Structure formats: structure tokens, C-alpha cells
Amino acid sequence: MATVSQIEIKDLAFAIEGKEILHGLTLSLAERRVGIVGRNGSGKSTFARVVSGLVAPTSGSVTVNGHDLAKDRRAAIREVGILFQNPEHQIIFPTVGEEIAFGLEQQGLSKADAAQETQAVLDQFGLSHWKEAHIATLSQGQKHLVCLMAISAMKPKLLVLDEPFAGLDIPTKAQMNRYLSLYEGSLLHITHDPADLEGYDHVVWIDQGTLRQAGSRPEVMNAYLAAMHSLGEDDDIAYLSR
Ligand SMILES: Nc1ncnc2c1ncn2[C@@H]1O[C@H](COP(=O)(O)OP(=O)(O)O)[C@@H](O)[C@H]1O
Ligand SMILES: [Mg+2]
User: Fold this and answer.
1) Of 17, 19, 20, 21, which is best to mutate to test ligand 1, by the most ligand atoms within 8 angstroms of its C-beta?
2) Which positions fall inside the ABC transporter domain (predicted)?
3) Rounded mean pLDDT of the chain?
4) CB 150, CB 158: distance < 8 Å
5) Is the CB of 42 under 6 A from ligand 1?
6) What is the DSSP secondary-structure string of 125-162?
7) Core-most of 80, 172, 197, 239, by most CB within 10 Å?
């Protein structure tokens, strides 16, 4: 049965070394497919890390399905999985099979059960021949796919995707999209490509660390794309030398 995660964010601020990266963010999300858009440096990746409980807010609160994930790491492992922008930040083990099995063992599965689940997820992706493959020998796109398999094997209720398709070739991207469209849990998907959000219920636009707009996909995407195109047409690049 499909489950929908509830994300409650109240007056969230997040600062590093005195620099405020996110501020004044209040947002309630209860849609199964949520897209996040925004310019480079607007705070999307930081937002993904805060929602996943990898870092605690400086002030305000974030809960997923009622849990404060930064404080409750056991709940975090069950509730949320995050696919980082850079697979190198995610991968720990030398082989594909070990990488997938690790997350499952973290969730408390025995070695035997973890091995069985690892096989199941490899079969589901049609990649059982990858089990013994050394991750270091894979391409960037293939590494992304390994991370997706490892995270989805853990079946988190909410899957946070931080530009998961960056650098993927067309067939790999299509394969990942197909898989994600079948994912039973909720998706929070950061992307620059409007095509990735086909069929999404809701879009959140983050701008300079704060919430610019949240609402239905057509409404927010139209406003966002109009703003981005007008910025693109502006030939003043003086800000680059600031
Ligand atoms: N660990 C960090 N230390 C200092 N500044 C950071 C750190 N992480 C992110 N930032 C800054 O916060 C801003 C938002 O970054 P990020 O969340 O990666 O944005 P996005 O994913 O939208 O491109 C950027 O200006 C970035 O330089
Ligand atoms: Mg980012």
C-alpha cells in the first residue's frame, strides 16, 4: 500500500559559521510526489539534509511523520533515505552487494536476510550481475544507480533525492525514472529539469534560503520558469565579478 509522508517545517533557520543558509521557512507537505526547484546556491541541498535529519536546524523545527529525525536516529533510518547529489559522499564499501547489504544490516536485518534482500533489489533492477562488481570501476551514473538500489532496498517512507539525475545518460535516467515512478513511499525530488517532475503533485521553490512559492506543479513551475527565463535573458553578468 502506498504511504504518504507528512513533513512539518516551522520557522526553520539553518546557519553555518554564522552564515544563514536557510531562514524563515514554514511549510507543511503531505503529497506523495513533491518537487523542489531553485537556483544554484539557493539552499536546496542544505534543505534536503535538514529534512533528512542529517543536520539539526539552528532554530525552528522539522518533523517527518511526527519524528524529529535529527534527534531520533533510529526513526531516521526507518523514515527517510537520502540520495546525495554526489554518490562519492554515499558509498562506503568496495562492492555493490556489500554496499546494498550494509544499509539493511543497519536496519537490524540478519546477515542472511540482508543478503536475500540485496539479491531481491538487484533482481528488481535487472542487475544481479553487478553484485560482485567493484564500485570504483563503475561510471558516475552507475554509481548513482548503486546508491538508489542501496537506499530503496531500505524502503524508507520518504525518499529524498538531491539532483539524482545529474550526469546520467538517457537510458540510465529513464531506468531511474521508471523505478522512482513505481516507488511506493513519498518522494522529495530536487531537480533543475521540469521534465523530471512529470506527474508530481506539488512543487516547492526555494530562493536565497527561503520559501518563494509552494503549490501545485503547473502554478509553481510556470512562475519559476518565467523568472528563470527572464534572468537568463538579462545580459548583465556583472554580479560574477563581485
Ligand atoms: N558546509 C557549508 N559551509 C559553508 N557554506 C555552505 C555549506 N553548505 C552550503 N553552504 C552554502 O550555502 C548555500 C546553499 O548551498 P546548497 O544548499 O548546496 O545550495 P543548492 O543545493 O541549492 O545549490 C551556498 O551559498 C553554499 O555555499
Ligand atoms: Mg545542491
Assistant:
1) 21
2) 7-233
3) 92
4) no
5) yes
6) TT-GGGTT-BGGGS-HHHHHHHHHHHHHHT--SEEEEE
7) 80
What does the pLDDT read at residue 132? 97
Q: Given a cut of 60, is residue 190 above it in pLDDT?
A: yes
For the segment(s) 7-231, the CATH number from 3.30.300.20, 2.60.40.150, 3.60.40.10, 3.40.50.300 is 3.40.50.300
Q: Which residue lies with its CA nearest to atom 16 of ligand 1?
A: 43
| Residue 197 banded pLDDT, cuts 50, 70, 90 | very high
Answer yes or no: is the C-beta of 85 below 6 A from any ligand 1 atom.
Answer: no
Residues 6+ positions from 233 with CB-CB distance below 8 Å:
none
Percent of the chain with pLDDT over 90: 74
Does residue 45 have its Cβ closer than 6 Å to ligand 1? yes
In the chain, what are the domain boundaries? Answer: 7-231
**Cβ of 43 less than 6 Å from ligand 1:** yes
Residue 193: predicted pLDDT: 86
Residue 112, classed as helix, strand or coil, is helix
The closest of 207, 150, 205, 208 to 179, measured between CA atoms, is 150
